[in-house]
Amino acid sequence: SSGINAEWPLRPGTNLNLRMGRIIKPGKVVLVLNGRNAGRKAVIIKNQDDGTGERPYGHALVVGIQRYPKKITRSMGKKKANKRSKIKPFVKVYNANHLMPTRYQLDLNVDKELFNKNSIKDPGQKKKALRIVKTQLEVKYKTAKSRWFFQKLRI
């Protein structure tokens, strides 16, 4: 045997499920590769692997950090520390090719009604969603969970 697989090329009718496991799934931390938020970390809220009518490609609704919290030292007072631990989030639908999955998970308990592609299009709904996410992210940051997520990406 020369090491060549005799089953290749596939015969018609052979049902081989070659679909890979889903990497981009809700709760997964990703890096945004393109656009104004390139290099920022984000969490997937909802993903669409196969695409839809208006977006015929794999895409995902993500929530990320546009402005990271600043460093806090011991000598800083409470007021200054609180001011420096503010976060500015973003909510956006990205092409799956423009997201790089990481090994990290972060579970954000978000309301699925508030976070869908249609509600994000409406400016009022989007502001409300951003306000909710901002408070959730700041609470997560203050409990010191997932420190890596709340730091700027450095090479």
Could you please describe the fold and organization of this structure?
The protein is an alpha+beta fold and 155 residues long. The protein is 21% helix and 24% strand. It is built from three helices and five strands; from the N terminus they run βββαββαα. It has helices at residues 78-84, 117-121, 123-142, and strands at 28-32, 41-48, 59-67, 88-95, 99-105. Strands 4-3-2-1-5 form a five-stranded antiparallel β-sheet, covered by helices on one side. A hairpin with an 8-residue loop joins strand 1 (28-32) and strand 2 (41-48). It is globular and about 55 Å long.
Mean pLDDT score: 83
Structural class: alpha+beta
Spatial shape: globular
Largest sheet: 5 strands, antiparallel
Strand line-up in the sheet with most strands: 4-3-2-1-5
Short descriptors:
155 residues; single chain; alpha+beta
SSE blueprint:
Elements: E1 28-32, E2 41-48, E3 59-67, H1 78-84, E4 88-95, E5 99-105, H2 117-121, H3 123-142
Antiparallel strand pairs: 1-2, 1-5, 2-3, 3-4
